[in-house]
Task: structure prediction
Amino acid sequence: MLPLTVDHQENNTHPSADTLDALFDGRLTLWQSRTGYRFSIDALLLAYFVTVKAGERIVDLGTGSGVVALVLARLYPTAILTGIELQSTMANRAERNVQLNGLQRRIKILHADVRQVTGQTSACGCDVAVCNPPYRTPSSGRVSADAERRAARHETHGDLHDFLRAGAQLLRHRGRMALCYPAVRLTELISAMQRVGIEPKRLRLVHSFAGAEASLVLVEGVKGGRTGLAVAAPLTIYHQSKQYTNEVASTIAGLPKPPSPLGS
Result:
């Protein structure tokens, strides 16, 4: 995950000692665990990459604190969203964040396992699925002692195929699914999408710095879509001075009109 700078304040009076973080000049606020899992810039990149049309129904698989659903609700005022989260502490935090931002009528948080959610949720037949799934196998890399971080980073409660299969089952025909994933696993991601009937249609590589190898990839596919992949210009996160590039800074500092679909 790429680091993200957000404004926050400690809230030691809260039972979980969360921090209250602000995005988009305070137009969106959310609680995050002070010591557990905290979202990164990956979530914002995914929210700005996915294609959403007016009035569409969106499901966020593994919603965590609900940040992707919250951002999408702000970007698309007529969208209806469902966030699905397995960990009870994260699901509760996501629900608090929905209430904090007054979005209860448009965002529903389900405490459920994506591996067993098919047929049990109103998200069935949705138009769009988004997912920032765990990206490390259970035995790879340093495994965090914190349960939230461990589940978010390692495939301990479902692997890539589980999340893709859930998305494919919840989507209507010709619905869209967008994911953010490590670039090093791009071939695996494309193959897995095709195995569940989601054809990759748009792709953008993300680089920490100009000239560096890609660290992330954003991919959007269509359920039952035809072959044909549009590859957009690469996205660079930082200047060499470690300041955000203009494109990224405009996303974080304000809430501008969503960009045109990449690769269109």
Summary: The CA atoms of residues 60 and 83 lie 5 Å apart. The helical segments are 41-49, 67-75, 88-100, 147-153, 160-170, 186-195, 246-253. The first helix runs from residue 41 to 49. Residues 9-15, 148-155, 255-264 have pLDDT under 50 and may be disordered.
